[in-house]
């Protein structure tokens, strides 16, 4: 979306929470006038960090100022979020975070120290990646979703699934799956997706929802068997694996995602400029190729489109959390 069409969209749309509408005749401030910081709520090397650095490296070549990724891990994203919400909405502080930071935390933690709707300006959905429902290929004698559901129902109390932690996106995806299929494997949380995948491969648990990039090589190598992907369409990395809908589970599109946000009350005209620079960097052919290769689908939608999606995600996961009686650790 170009600058003119974005401004037209914003003008025709009710004001989004977190965006300040400029008074008529007000000129947007100069931007950028100093280096731009992209705050990342996790350590270097993870999905948020990869996306942030992809944007920062390319954006710094086009806006006339350095763009620097700054890792601020801690408290499931709260440390970084609190830093960002206190910053000025002048376009010099951006925030790249995950579904957990921008949606699940709100659904899971009633006393969260930041409000991702009221205290942050939406810039864009950066990337999505599907989850893959996988089973241990040696220990689980099923190949299709109906076979898996039947097997789980026949082995109540004897099956378990791994996740990257309580309240993680893979945990809530499995809880949604359990609610939709009437199954109840036991939850075994780990400290991170790599550990959850390792024990699944070892056969210590039987199944898991995993990010595509974490397990694609193990699926292709035959140690894990993919039952379905949770995206709307089949994934180019695993083209023979059906979607959940194709496998028999309708309305089960669940993606992990990374988005770009900024401090609340950013003026609309400045938002249009920042959005344009971010999306231009994100959609550079080199970035698309690099991100696609590790399982990400590049999005780069409008602030209004991302905010609508974000609000729907918060409500979706709030309902899952309530039904499953999940409590944050």
TrEMBL record:
This protein's UniProt keywords: Receptor, Signal
Matches recorded under PANTHER family: BLR1237 PROTEIN (PTHR42928:SF5), TRICARBOXYLATE-BINDING PROTEIN (PTHR42928)
Family note: Belongs to the UPF0065 (bug) family.
One Pfam assignment: TctC
Domain of life according to the entry: Bacteria
Signal peptide: 1-22
Record InterPro entries: BUG (IPR005064), Bug_dom1 (IPR042100)
Annotated protein name in UniProt: Tripartite-type tricarboxylate transporter, receptor component TctC
